[in-house]
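## Example record

The block below lists the input lines for one assembly entry, exactly as stored, with component labels intact.
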Amino acid sequence: MSATEFSGIAERRIEDANLVRGVAALTRERIERVVKAVTRGEAGARLAVYHETCMRCGMCADACHYCISHDGDPTYSPVGKMEQTMWKLLRTGGKVDPDDIYGMAQIAYTECNLCRRCVHYCPVGIDTGYVMSLVRRICHRLGVVPLYIQDTAHSHSGTMNQMWVKDDEWVDSLVWQEDEARSEIPALRIPFDKEGADFLYSVIAPEPKFRTQLIYQAAVIFDQAGVDWTMPSSPGWDNSDMCMFTGDYEMMGRLKRCHFEMAQKLKVRRIVMGECGHAFRSVYDVGNRWLGWKNHPVPIVHSVEFFWELLTEGRIRLAKKFEEPVTIHDPCNIIRGRGLMDKLREVTHALCSNVVEMSPTREHNLCCCAGGGVINCGPPFKGVRLAGNKAKADQLAATGVHTVVAPCHNCHGGLEDIIHHYKLGMDTKFLGDLIYDCMEKPGAA
Amino acid sequence: MQQLYNFAVGPLAWVAWAVFLGGSAWRLASMWALARKKDMNAVAYMDVRFAARSMAHWATPFATLGWRANPAVTVATFAFHTALGLLLLFAPGHAVLWDYAFGVNVWSLPEGIADALTVLVILLCGFFAWRRLQLPVVRFVTRPMDWLVLALVAVPCITAFLAKQQIGDNLLLSTLHVLSGEATLMALPFTRLSHAIFSPFARAYMGSEFGGVRHCPDW
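Predicted structure tokens for the full assembly:
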């Protein structure tokens, strides 16, 4: 019934050089071997219970922005995507064609953001994000990963950061931003490798690569708040992790170990992470588990929580408020991943005079459609994100405001794309943008 | 036919219960062993308090986003499972069997209520079948196993209703009712009906992870 009536992924295949090359090298025997190695060797009861108890009720369809944006197309529903991938692999024991793996990779890497909104819709408690991550793990072990995100994973392997940033370029970027900031705050320093600092500030590699001004802003905020902080000058500074999303868990483990060990080497009390969602997911929830750590060797704090501390402790004083109406986007990895919805609101309300909530909001908010590594799959799949998140565009437009506060890099990328595509006339802001803009700077020249 | 009926309510009933209880125990024990072997990075976060909190929300109609978004399914699901549970334990005919097998005197539903609940379960089976046939999001993911488990619930209820209402050969229908009910009992640990024994653990884990790690409601 399903195969003829709903073609699903077969009718929307997108050409990707690495998927084509990877699939060309596959045999049915290798696929079966790898599927069994993952589903029986790596996964266990969790996958078995999810597979057995998913009642195929379809309630999760209403949760997924892809499904909503495609007018309820069942091939985009969470259970529909599991049916076309993992459920099919388990049902067949991995006896599928290489061509099938192409479609499964496209679904797993580009049609699911692992946002876990569907958790709020499933009575049984099935974690689609976990299941789709395992599909990605199989695809990674088969060498069938979209080209652009695979390139970032290679960068992690080669440089321990996501953006091929060389060691001297990293230090140079920090010194550059310090120089820039000293023209505003003459006594400002970005403290390198300061042992025993209160916290290590880590960022994702796209900050030095594309959004270097965020390092400037963070330096000004920390300096003017009078906090004791440091940034590392050698690998371990990048907290991002595309290997988590490609399914390269071995490399993910190396990255997390490097990050934590840098903090331990510097003897800091905790790690404060920049405004990024996926990196937080990797450091706080996924990488530690792969390494066998129930908790974290060094406490992890996301920027939203840290800014909340600075504001509530009075370490930052505001000279003004942002007067334009704003709305709040809830990044999945720090809201459904860490429950920071209240602190995000407290900080935003402290900074902005007029906050208009989206509907739905908080932990029920819709995804940006960029996370989960989907935006990192690059230009071939940009259209998937744009068409797949019309629901978010409608939600943003309904607020009637022109500024979206989103404390996550991937969310910014995804929201900016749909804002332009659907001509919403909106701007996106990090909390750091607003704090930098509104705070008192007593040390300013 | 009488001999078959006697066999069905006698030795075969013991076999069915043995398969159900033994099979369920074996499946739970082996799944737990597998979880201990492969899923300690999840098991480690199990927390009774958060599990109970999640279960309480999902056991309350319209207390979760999913239930609120699907009102018809919510009403049908709660009515279906409640009616089925009441009939399994307290149908007048079953009370006789409790007494016959174990010598325990179990309270039983009034005849009229039991009949109404039986019809309700049959109608709700029809509702679930209608969803599988008519709603694209359900039809796309429906497989033979889904029809099998629906039939395993519907057939005992339909035969019970017909026998009770004296429609058709009473002995034949009563025998079919007992046999199909025993088939359902035996199939429970080994088909998707196993959600009865496994879904509490899936729910408990999701509640634990969202409560203890994510600090966020899972409803």
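Chain B touches chain A through 52 residues (CB under 8 Å). Chain B has a mean pLDDT of 96.
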